[in-house]
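Title: Comparing notes on inverse folding

I've been comparing how different people in this forum approach sequence design from structure. To keep things fair, I'm posting one structure and asking everyone to reply with a full sequence. Here's the target:
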């Protein structure tokens, strides 16, 4: 046999051996199918029946309990993961209990399980894959344990019945689309461990009314909270440096928020069509404002900018007749700066420690108190002084 043929046979033998070794062995125990992931470590993952997840659609139904161990061919295996698309599109699956041996939930593992009402995620789980629970229409609440460090993109997107979610302090990033279109979600607390909020992470959560952003978050992604039409209150952490394009676009009910003094850039259309708030302060840390950032904010009457150097700005406003307040001594700089020169009503103010000065007071706003804690019964013709509303100081001159 020539050397060429010897090499060819050797190559084919290696490829064949590699193919055999890479194929996971597949078996059924009870009602559940498994792939052997390691014959050395004796581990398996939960899988679907057949060659693809659509071979036997709706294979799993009712309540499923995933055990810690299974026995096959005389060996006991530990169940360590739920594989890619293992329960995908099982429309009759109603509940799942996952054992403490499982460390990962794969991509699309429970995707489109439209009848799934409860999923018990144990403290052993470290990662939840992309779209793992996407479009689980009946899933109403999820408690993510402190063991989880990674939640994949779109993991809970389209869970229309999800009213509450607990994000643990172990998670460092909210990935793109993670909770998008969770239309029943009412409030979100993002813990101090989280550094970034991804693209469209909470987009179209139409019943979301309040968001608290932890002190470690530095960036809020493109359209992260866009179209959250009932969102009234956002509490920013003190590390946010960038508010992305369209981050709060079409948040029509937004009335209570303070841009922190850590923010450097506000993206294009960041607050576009947020037409409910009446005053706004841009802190002195902001150096750039994107196009349309505050366009169609039709109720805004007073804009206060604390920067002594006018921030670089594109055409970010529609109505340049609103009152623009700038630090004392900077009037000429703003009147000559690109975009800022379009404002027709500019006045100076003395910088102080008060972050929300000179707002318009009306009876429909939250209750107003003086510094002695006495509620003001009427807000017309208030005497000059400092007042408190929603925990914020307000100056009336």
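Reply #1:
Here's my take.
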């Amino acid at each position: 046999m020539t050397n060429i043929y010897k090499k060819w046979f050797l190559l084919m033998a290696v490829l064949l051996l590699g193919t055999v070794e890479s194929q996971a062995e597949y078996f059924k125990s009870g009602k559940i199918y498994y792939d052997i992931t390691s014959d050395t470590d004796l581990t398996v993952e939960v899988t679907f029946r057949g060659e693809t997840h659509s071979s036997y659609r709706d294979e799993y139904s009712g309540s499923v309990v995933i055990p810690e161990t299974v026995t096959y061919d005389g060996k006991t295996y530990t169940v360590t993961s739920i594989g890619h698309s293992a329960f995908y599109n099982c429309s009759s699956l109603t509940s799942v209990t996952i054992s403490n041996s499982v460390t990962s939930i794969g991509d699309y593992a429970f995707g489109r399980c439209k009848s799934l009402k409860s999923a018990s995620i144990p403290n052993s789980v470290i990662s939840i894959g992309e779209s793992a629970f996407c479009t689980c229409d009946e899933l109403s609440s999820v408690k993510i344990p402190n063991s989880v460090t990674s939640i994949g993109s779109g993991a809970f997107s389209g869970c229309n019945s999800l009213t509450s979610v607990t994000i643990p302090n172990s998670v460092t990033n909210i990935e793109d689309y993670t909770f998008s279109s969770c239309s029943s979600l009412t409030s979100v607390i993002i813990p101090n461990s989280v550094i970034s909020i991804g693209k469209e992470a909470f987009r179209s959560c139409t019943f979301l009314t309040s968001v608290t952003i932890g002190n470690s978050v530095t960036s809020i992604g493109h359209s992260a909270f866009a179209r959250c039409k009932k969102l009234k209150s956002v509490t920013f952490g003190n590390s946010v440096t960038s508010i992305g394009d369209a981050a709060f676009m079409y948040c029509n009910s937004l009335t209570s928020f303070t841009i922190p003094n850590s923010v450097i850039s506000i993206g294009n259309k960041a607050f576009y069509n947020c037409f409910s708030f009446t005053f706004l302060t841009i802190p002195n840390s902001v150096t750039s404002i994107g196009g349309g950032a505050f366009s169609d904010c039709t109720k805004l009457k007073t804009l206060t900018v604390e920067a002594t150097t006018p921030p670089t700005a594109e055409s970010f406003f529609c109505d340049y007749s609103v009152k623009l307040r700038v630090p004392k001594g900077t009037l000429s700089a703003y009147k000559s700066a690109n975009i800022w020169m379009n404002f027709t009503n500019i006045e100076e103010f003395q910088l102080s420690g008060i972050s929300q000065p000179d707002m318009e007071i009306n009876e429909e706003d939250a209750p107003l108190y003086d510094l002695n804690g006495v509620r003001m019964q009427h807000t017309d013709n208030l005497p000059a002084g400092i007042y408190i509303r929603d925990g914020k100081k307000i100056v009336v001159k």
